[in-house]
Structure formats: C-alpha cells, structure tokens
Write a structure and sequence with these properties.
The chain is mainly alpha-helical and about 60 residues long. The chain has one domain (about 1-59). Helix content is about 70%, strand content about 0%. The protein has helices at about 1-15, 30-40, 45-59. Helix 1 runs antiparallel to helix 3 (about 45-59) and helix 2 packs across helix 3. It is globular. This is Toxin-antitoxin system HicB family antitoxin. Pfam families: CopG_antitoxin. InterPro entries: CopG_antitoxin (IPR022148).
C-alpha cells in the first residue's frame, strides 16, 4: 500500500492546481545536473524537482 500511496503523491504533486511560485537560489551546476537528469527521463525539470522533494519529505 505504501508504494501505491507514493505514486499517488507523486502524481498529485505533478498535477496539483494549487501551487505557489517560490524563489530558491541553487548552484548553477546543481541546476544543470537536475535539468540533465530530467531530460533523460523526458520530463520538465521543475516537475522532476517537485517529485524529488515530495519523495524526500514522505521518507
């Protein structure tokens, strides 16, 4: 059941209509690496970051 709920959480994070824009300063190299990883998965990098954050918070 835990695996199923984590998929629901990830899909909720990616499609949630109630989002709030934030500003966060990250090293350029980190942004580059995140974009490369997202590109390999064929998803937008901001969606990829949201998924990483959601997975980390639930842990």
């Amino acid at each position: 059941m835990q695996h199923h709920s984590s998929r629901l959480l990830s899909s909720f994070v990616l499609s949630s209509p109630s989002t709030k824009p934030i500003t966060i300063r990250l090293p350029v190299s980190l942004i580059y690496n995140l974009k490369m990883m997202a590109n390999k998965r064929d998803i937008p990098y901001q969606s990829f970051i949201k998924t990483i954050l959601a997975d980390r918070i639930k842990a």
